[in-house]
Amino acid sequence: MSNLDYDLIVIGAGPAGTAAAIAAGRRGCRVLLVEQNGYCGGMATAGLVNPLLGSFYRNPQTGRTGDLLGGIYAEVCSRLRKQGALLRFSYRVHEEEEYFSDAFDDAWLRIVYDRMLAEAGVATLFHTQLLEADCSGGQVRSVQVATKGGVAEFSATAFVDSTGDADLAALCGAGCDIGREEDGLCQPCSTMFRMGGIDKQRVMAGSLNNARLEVNSRFSAARERGDIDFPFKAGIGVYEFPRPGVLHFNATRMGGAAALTGRRLSELEVEGRRQVALLADWLVRAVPGFDHAFLESMAARVGVRETRRVRGRYTMTRQDVVEGARFDDGIARSAYIIDMHDPKGAGGLHSGKERGGAVKKGFRPKRYYEIPLRCLQPAGFVNLLVACRAISTDHYAHAATRVMGTLTTVGEAAGVAVGLTRNDGRPLSEIDGAAVRAELGYLDAPLGF
Ligand SMILES: Cc1cc2nc3c(=O)[nH]c(=O)nc-3n(C[C@H](O)[C@H](O)[C@H](O)COP(=O)(O)OP(=O)(O)OC[C@H]3O[C@@H](n4cnc5c(N)ncnc54)[C@H](O)[C@@H]3O)c2cc1C
Predict the structure, then answer these.
(1) Does residue 109 have its Cβ closer than 6 Å to ligand 1?
(2) Residue 290 pLDDT > 80, yes or no?
């Protein structure tokens, strides 16, 4: 056994980092998971992002739909389902065809993660922020973290950066890109919220699509009349939520410059809450069925869609997504569209029509695509993987790979890779994605639908 503190340190306990820690812990690694919040889940909990996306697939061969993702993602869903904290619902949004998604109760997700981490023997350090890293020659030796009790330093054989922003990779000098090529602007941020006390039966009248139409037609009319001074001309995303009387809203949007400084994040937090207040007040005033509704919850942290993307041994491109690229070292897969919100304004650049439009050509994959392990391996690094929304992609591919289902499987693959290095002593940079894929198993099994 090495005299380092841990076999693996994971920074960031979002969907990706938590899965990485669980997967490595299950393989006997001594794992430390460092997280600035007091719980796991990242955007899924602190950001109140819902529902889970990335698993839906319509098999072009059979026309049937089903789940594309397995492993820890499927386990998390199954545990939530048993708890009554997962609700599968269907809706029409970007297509003429119906999609399904899984809405989940984020309070239960925190508990599910705690249990899975404890079962895997992972040590967690909450309320702890990454400060510095000791790194040279592509080898990370230790990280300094700020805790309530002061600064602490931990060493490890391997490191996984799951901060979403590639904070650790950037501290270690890894090459990163930010936002779109022409001006560095990123997809907008949003503060998520939920309304409770809704007469859901009345608002939905049998289908979420009805609720969306009702809310949005009234919203457009209110904007035209000047009844609401909302900064963007965008639709209101209404989603199911597994609690009586509660619906979830993805409707605010801010900015375009990367949310990578305290000042920028602070501006975003205040503006996000201002927009939530405008919308929550308006919904109660203007939409039948919301007469007794109230602001049930609001994200503890602003939702950040995009900041840094690390430069890895392979950079996934828009074409890879659209063509449905497959790789020998493919360790995760998805058929999720290039869900590109306009960095400068409102609405999705992928959407062919104002509302409910079909996804434009060049944004919809022809079949599911795979993500190679090389996207997680920052160029020139020996013992560091980036497993989070900051994996190596271009700005467009990022808009497809950034969702929580997909990233849970990306994180799991990183944990499996670390498990393999522990068995044979090779550095992470030499682990072949094909071996990780073989261990994950489900990627080569028949789809079954
Ligand atoms: C507004 C919005 C809407 C979205 N809608 C959907 C949706 O409907 N469905 C879907 O599936 N996906 C959606 N996404 C995308 C998805 O939520 C994120 O891309 C995904 O959660 C990223 O997972 P992650 O594990 O890479 O990072 P995150 O979820 O961001 O987790 C990163 C974790 O690292 C921690 N961390 C960061 N920096 C540090 C540090 N320096 N020190 C210590 N800890 C640190 C954070 O606190 C966090 O817990 C949406 C995103 C946004 C912002």
Answers:
(1) no
(2) yes
